Each structure stands twice: as C-alpha cells, then as structure tokens.
UniProtKB/TrEMBL annotation:
SUPFAM superfamilies xref list: Phase 1 flagellin
Name of the molecule in the record: Flagellin
Database matches in InterPro entries: Flagellin, Flagellin_N
Keyword S-adenosyl-L-methionine: no
C-alpha cells in the first residue's frame, strides 16, 4: 500500500492571490502614509533618478541664492562705507573753500587745518 499526497490546487492559487493582494495593499498603504509616490528604487527607478537630479539642482540653487544674498550684504556694507567717505570728502571740500577765504585769521585757519587733519586721519583708518 503506497502513500498518496493530494494537493488542493484551488487553495494554493487562492493563497498566492491573497499574498499578492496583501503585498499590493502594503505598498499602497506605505505610499499613502509617507506621502511620496516613490519610496524606494523598485517603485520607479527612472522617476527616482529624475527626482534625485532635481533634488541636487534645488540644493545648488539654494546655495546660489545664499551666495547672492552674501554678495548683496557685502555690497551694502561697501555702500555704507562709501557714503561715509563721500561725506568726509564733501566736508574736506567745504573746509578747503572756507580756508581759501581771506577773511579768516590764523586761529580760524589753524582750526580748519585741525579739523581737516582729523578727517584725513579718519579716511586712513
């Protein structure tokens, strides 16, 4: 008397279909819970490559924007310094015109020279 093994083909097929459906459901739930269309390279390899390239470009653009902002800050600082220098030079010009006036005595001219020297030293600072 031999041993006979029977398989229930319908049950095996049903189990395989159930497993596939559960796997698909798990993938769908993962996408829904993460909010991403692509969670791993197996989901969409080409899409993942494109998104990583775009992510790299966005990072580069953020750095470029930060560099531009740094450049603007440098220019604003230089503008402030040049405005100050312009004011000093304008005052030196005024002092030069005032010193050229013949109605000034030596004390007034000495005071003008003292102020001019202090302005020049401020420029050299």
């Amino acid at each position: 008397m031999g041993l006979s093994i029977n398989q229930n083909i319908a049950a095996v097929n049903s189990y395989r279909n159930l497993s596939n459906t559960q796997n698909d459901l798990a993938k769908s739930l993962e996408k829904l819970s993460s909010g991403f269309r692509i969670n791993r390279a197996a989901d969409d390899a080409a899409g993942l490559a494109i998104s990583e390239g775009l992510r790299s470009q966005v990072g580069g653009l953020k750095v470029a924007a930060r560099n531009a902002q740094d450049g603007i800050s440098v220019v604003q600082t230089a503008e402030g310094a040049l405005t100050e220098v312009h004011g000093i030079l304008q005052r030196l010009r005024d002092l030069g015109v005032q010193a050229a006036n013949d109605s000034n005595n030596t004390e007034a001219r000495a005071n003008i020279a003292t102020e001019a020297n202090s302005l020049i030293s401020e420029l050299d600072r």
